[in-house]
Amino acid sequence: MTPRAGSTMTGSIEGLERFDSPGKGRGLRVTRPFKVGELLFSCPAFSHVLSVKERGCYCEFCFTRTQHLARCGKCKKAFYCNVKCQKGDWAMHKLECSAMVAFGENWCPSELSRLVARILAKKKMQKERCICEKMLLIGEMQSHTEDEDNEKREMTEADIAGLHRFYSKHLDVPDHKELLTLFSQVACNGFTIEDDELSHLGTAVYPDMALINHSCLPSVIVTFKGTSAEVRAVQDMKPGDEVLISYIDLLYPTDDRNNRLRESYYFICDCQECKSQSKDKAKLKVRKQRDSIEPDVINNMVRYARKAIREFREFKHTKTPSELLEMCEQSLEEMGAVFDDSNVYMLHMMYQAMGICMYMQDLDGAIRYGEKLLKPYSHLYPPYSLNVSSVYLKLGRLYLGLERQSACTSALKKAMAIMEVAHGKDHFYIEELRKMIAQK
């Protein structure tokens, strides 16, 4: 049965209970104190899928990264740590294995379609009581099919068409209305699994996690150990405090954050930061000049910046790295006439430029952009932000490539200080960092 509001979340996690969160519906709160860095709970994915781009680098079943993966003998596309992982994944992989062979290069379902197919298969397979509880929680996950705009509806219809095309042989596909609801639920409640540098590894559904509400001042952070999600406190919490995560990137000013929340999750945030907008002035900082800059000039540049960001996203997969870098440099030059280097729109383009330079093996260029990010990132993001630690990590590895040992060690230690709180001191990312620092 579904846990009642006020009962322990799934009957097995101490220190947490469900409750009716004012203005938000369901929520989770703590029933005992938690310290910064303390684990509230961890949970396995109900269903998960590895990104196609990461095949060959990570195990499809447990998301372990290793150089000694065994390939599926039939499709030659999926890779596993060992026979145990391959057997563990077969119930899900068989949905795709023969289809990948049959369609060849034309096999191209979206990652969302792949995840929904696995959820449907899992729903049919699992009969145990504990899984029934999870299924009830999945049934409770939010759906916003009626709120989707035409563009989103078209994307969902394309995903559904992909599901029928690539999976109908192995799945009993429900009717169209039920599929629309399920795709909307997964799009709203799915989690992107990321590595230590925040690169996309795959997508997963965690029914228990769907109970956690959003705040731009989060009390916890979600990280991943393989395919399991872990929730740790990033603030000291006392009994009765609500468990709150951020659904979005918190770098941007209030209007941008709430536009994103409205577009993706169909609500706006009324947390203390959104009410006070205390960091907006720093996030939209303008360049110091002899004469003050007119508000219209600033507003026009904000509109230009948002347009430049949208265009970069549109062209990210069609233009060459050199062309994308030129787009970043042009927009930085244009915005730099009005915005300070610490302005979030400048930081956005610097971050993109850093990634492109890394891809192009321009280590000096990547370091130049990365070093400009650190101070404003540390000021504008909440404490223990993985966005900050990921830049330190990238810079540490870039310094290592240029044999700048002292800078490498310093950057890696700063990354580790954040990650020990966010991931826990026993996480394998921390173990890898300790080894790297010891070797330096």
Please provide a written account of the structure.
With 440 residues, this protein is mainly α. Helix content is 50%, strand content 12%. The chain folds into four domains: 1-44 and 206-278, SET domain (Beta-clip-like, Beta Complex); 55-193, no CATH class; 281-363, Serine Threonine Protein Phosphatase 5, Tetratricopeptide repeat, CATH 1.25.40.10; 381-440, Serine Threonine Protein Phosphatase 5, Tetratricopeptide repeat (Alpha Horseshoe). It has a three-stranded antiparallel beta sheet, with no helix packed on it. A three-stranded antiparallel beta sheet has the order 4-8-7, with helices on one face. Helix 9 (295-315) runs antiparallel to helix 10 and helix 11 runs antiparallel to helix 12. The longest helix is centred in the N-terminal third of the chain and has 21 residues, at 83-103. It is globular.
Please compute the radius of gyration using only Cα atoms.
Answer: 23 Å
Largest beta sheet, briefly? 3 strands, antiparallel
Strand content: 5-15%
Mean residue pLDDT: 91
Reading side by side through the largest sheet, how are the strands ordered?
3-11-10
SSE series: EEEEEEHHHHHEEEEEEHHHHHHHHHH
Per DSSP, the total helix count is: 15
N-end to C-end Cα span? 54 Å
Shape: globular
Number of strands: 12
Helical percentage: 40-55%
Number of domains: 4
How does the helix and strand content classify structurally? mainly alpha
- The unreliable regions are 1-11, 128-137
Domain MYND-type: 59-97
Region (Disordered): 1-20
Enzyme class: transferase
GO molecular function, one term: zinc ion binding
